[in-house]
Amino acid sequence: MSYAIRRLGDADVAAYRKIRFEALSRHPEAYASSPESFAQRSDGELAALLGRMSFYGAFAEAGLGGILAYARADGERERHRGWIYQVYVQPALRGTGCAMGLLEAALDEARGEVLQVHLGVGAHNRPAIRLYERAGFEIYGTEPRSLNVNGRYVDEHLMVRFLDKAPGEVQ
Length: 171
Fold this sequence. Notes:
Layout lengths: L3 E4 L5 H14 L8 H5 L3 H10 L1 E7 L2 E10 L8 E9 L8 H14 L4 E7 L3 H9 L3 E12 L2 E11 L9
Parallel strand pairs: 4-5
Antiparallel strand pairs: 1-2, 2-3, 3-4, 5-7, 6-7
Helix pairs in contact: 1-3
């Protein structure tokens, strides 16, 4: 299946709302937000969010099939770090390279402004961990009980990709 990756903007709010709600509903253990709280957000709030962070979308024949958000830390002493959030690819696009394409789009932007990119992933989510490792991310810690989803605690691995050194190179 073919797809095209591009930045999301104001015209994509409805498509973003739909796929983000899908991600939160299908995989509640993977995200800090709940579908119920996300549903309360106005189109104006979502448009502002799309403008504040860099959102990438993978568009296939059926429409928006994957999303990823990237943001640079804005604290004066943290500007060397970026963050990946909200990664989700619909089942039809999994295994096509779509998730890696979304990651590479964000990393291309990050290379121009930060030295390292961080993300968090559920410790139970082996497919996502393998994807991030293939993209050069390394686990540097685990946050126990990071989320409490429907009475179940979810541990989260913290991962980093250093952009100023080769993967596997020692600090």
